[in-house]
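Sat 14:20. Reprocessing the chain from the morning session after the first attempt stalled halfway. Input below, unchanged.
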Amino acid sequence: MPGTFARNFSIEATRPSAAEIAALAGILPRATRVYFSAVPTIEPAELIAAAASLRKARLEPVVHIAARRTRTAADLAHLLASLHEQADVRRLLIVGGDVDTAGPFPDALSVIQKGRLREHGIEEIGVGVYPEGHPRIPPARLAASLDEKIAAARAQGLGVHLVSQFSFSGERIVEWLRRLRAAGINLPVRVGMAGPTSVPALLRYAKRCGVNASLRGLASGVATSLIGHVGPDRILGALAAAEGLGDIAAHYFSFGGTLETARYACEAAAGRHGASRAMAQSN
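Finished this time. Tokens:
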């Protein structure tokens, strides 16, 4: 939906402080989804408090659950109950968690199947997808796993949306979305892209996350000569120009800072970036 995908955006925040959450309330539209990353060092109490603060700020907290970092089923049940009671959390993004050891939940699928999510007020889950593939999982296994997660979520009565890993290539994202739709997967997709940040930081995060194909293009292209922060204008433009992509929305990773990403997203939604202006003129 070229006319709406930049407006119906979400952002991903890593450990936002109370001051940042208060500032977000003055920047973001009411009910904007803020995905709260499951960094390894965060304690449940901090996670719950941040989700509650986001809810009080009239934003929609979406909490990451990292399956392999969940020590016991009781820990997961307690976390979900607390998130529901204190922050009215209704949506989760369930990921595997890139660690070698695992407790009772070896992957995201096991959380969906055994986590009793509906009992704790969860109505919808996000599932991670990878336009450039996964550095450790073969493509065929990724595709089968996605089908299994969708089927398991539906069997539990959960809504499902997809959240993609970021990419630096709008063309690759468009090609991947078309393959996804051709495979009969018509779920809403929140298209991951890096918010405004410096090129060195983009390179660092891309290497860490295994975004190799478009990373090579970024490293060899004119972007490396830019000074200051760069944003995903070209990706917004590529998505705006494409047709037949289904229900998509922008999802910003806040590598350059949560508040700067939020401001950029609002500017893009209002059509005040070059790519967004072109998008608005095309409708």
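Residues 10-281 form a domain with the TIM Barrel fold (CATH 3.20.20.220).
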